[in-house]
Amino acid sequence: MINTDHLSPDAEALAKDLEQHEGYRVLRRVPKPYSSMPHQGPVPDGRCVAILDVETTGLSAEHDVIIELAIMLCFLDGEGEVVGHFGPFSWLQDPGCELDPKISLVTGLRTQDVAGQKINDAFAIGLLDRASLIVAHNARFDLGFIERRYPLLAGRAWACSCNEIDWLELGYEGRSQSALLAHVGWFSDAHRAAADVWALFWLLQHRQRDAGGAPIRTHLQRLIEAADTPSVMVQAERAPFSKKDMLKARGYSWNPDDQFWQIELPPERVEHEQAWGYRSGLPAMTTRTITACQRHR
Q1: CA-to-CA distance for 83 and 227, rounded, in angstroms?
Q2: In the chain, fewer beta carbons within 10 Å around the N or the C end?
Q3: What predicted TM-score, i.e. pTM, was given to this entire model?
């Protein structure tokens, strides 16, 4: 359950009164990070999920490097409810070069802030090794930097809170973390790794009913279900160049490594998609199963 004890009772009374007027909407600041473990005792049994964020010198995992890393661990019961959490832990890293001013504008980090700083790699690896699933809001981006720095973690299961939750179906207009957080009535100081990790945890603890009258559950439960469910990559191999606009309009993306168009679908939609491909004059579609260990790569 989300804790709101940090909110001022007097200010909260004013906020609730203001919310009665249709011309106003009130956002509340997420609290400062805190740990919560059952009876302040040992680490609970059961599944462990790591929430992670990186700040970097640029967008290329091949050429740029991490300048800030934050990780927090969540311990779950059999229903995917959080029963304990601690962190986030965060570290700065000296990249050995001047930071681009644009990176400083985005992250708030200056060259002097990271000078001489170093990530505690052993501790960071230990945290991530404890988790059976790593969560990030842009998993493809974070994954590339983490696996380059920590090759021993290659092939781990990842989940993307940006792309693996159907935010539109749930009534959200955007997918940026700040927009999603604001939709549920909160705001946070963004773009520092620890603040972003904590804000994502806060967002994922929000409870909402699925479309169609399903039981109320947290966004984290939705994300775990999506990550645990294998999907199928439908591959339009040998598709004629003349079909590219049709494929793109249907939601296919270009695989630059293997040089074909592809789309990731739930298993129950594969047969229908293959039939569409046949009717559209495409060569027979090939498929491959995708799990959380292959997704986002």
Answers
A1: 20
A2: N
A3: 0.90
Residue-wise pLDDT for 143-158, tens only, equals 999 999 999 999 999 9
Looking at per-residue confidence, does 130 or 37 come out higher? Answer: 130
For residue 39, the one-letter residue type is H
What CATH topology corresponds to 230-290?
Alpha-Beta Plaits (3.30.70)
Joined together, the tokens standing for residue 190 give 């963004």
Angle value at C-alpha 142, between 194 and 250, nearest 5 degrees:
125
Query: What is the per-residue pLDDT across 15-70, written as a single tens digit (0 to 9) for each?
Result: 888 888 888 888 989 999 999 888 766 777 789 999 999 999 999 999 999 999 99
Q: Which fold has domain 9-227?
A: Nucleotidyltransferase; domain 5 (3.30.420)
